[in-house]
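Memo to structure team: turn this sequence into structure tokens by end of day. - J.P.
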Amino acid sequence: MALLSEVFGVSSKPILSYVERDDVDTRFRDALASDKQIIVYGSSKQGKTALVSKYLPYKENILVSLTPKTAVLDIYQTILSISGIRLKAGSSQKSSTETSAGFSAKVKAIIPIFGGGEVGSKGEVTAGSDKEQDFEEIPINLELPQHVSELLRKVHSKKWVILENFHYLDDVTQKQFAFDLRAFQELGVRFVILGVWREKNRMAQFNGDLLDRVVEIPVEPWIQSDFRRVAERGADILKIAFADELLNAAIEASFSSIGVFQELLKGISAEAGIGATAGSTIAISDLSLLTHTIANKASDYSARHQRALEAIAAGHPSGGPKGDLPPLYLPYYLVRVVLEGGFDGIANGMRRSDIHDRIKQIHHRGDDVRASDMSNLLGGLGNLQSVKSISPPIIDYDSQKRVLQVVDSTFYFFIKNSDTREILEGIQNPLNAR
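Reply from structure team:
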């Protein structure tokens, strides 16, 4: 018997309704068999974690969960720690962000001398039955990928390193790691990087040498047949049957988001009284179950997205005052443009030129809004959302296509099922706060 929460919905654990997609799963498996680094990207709640964890169980590999405060040294310290290597700070004063005060790039690594010992499944070392475990102290520089990889070889670690939430890192840290990633590829240390963005060659923008050394795997788009297979697989496990009309309506209401679709199926099943595998097949056809579920999910998503939009709108003033005139307040005007455009305006992305034109039309200093101001605004959206603790980010700018895109798949559901005019009225106009 399976619980509803194990079959449908969004979870950090594997969901039983997972289905393989030839263009995604096959490519990922092929990438695992290559010698390249792997980048899995796409909007939030679109199956990145589900894909990776299916083929690389997190408990059997090295998982590093990143935050906006994580520095490159923090990543390497975590990798070594999980691999059973202890670090002792040296005399250098250079410190990383999240590690203890004074933690240094130049440290001493304390590693086991194996003899009769073996490395356990979690990286720890167990002594042999008739030998005591000895340890070796080695001076290293954590800033050098070669030193990190040599330590991993010494403890015979061949595990994958999985970096979750890579988008949380600021551009400086991402760029620094992009150069190290190339070195790790040559040294045989394999990484899988998961990030919330929809832009191709994101890492290669920081280091062009990565183009032939990484495999990029986008988890989008999901097509209608994929949604149906997910529903059918989960329904078989729970012994329920969704009516075609209900299923079609749920697919349409999901706006191509598998995460939203999973949550709708979970909500519909719960509304029908399904909490686990049924004793015999139960038909579910009442469209009101979907109506109630949509209302509940809209309420859930609304609170988060309204707060996120308010935080973005209250971002740095930008542009500075001009004589007696107030600053440009471009983040506020960007939020206005997004909300006034509604679902239709953002569904396929917003071109930079259109955003610029719309802002100039409604701006209190329209003639002063320059192209360079738009570059700073759109290029800084990732950092602004990070500073405002908007996690995951909801929008991102694709500098190659020059398009603003939604990267939180639940945002489509939110903006389609909300009164955008009412939301905009609830966001403070910074001109009125002066």
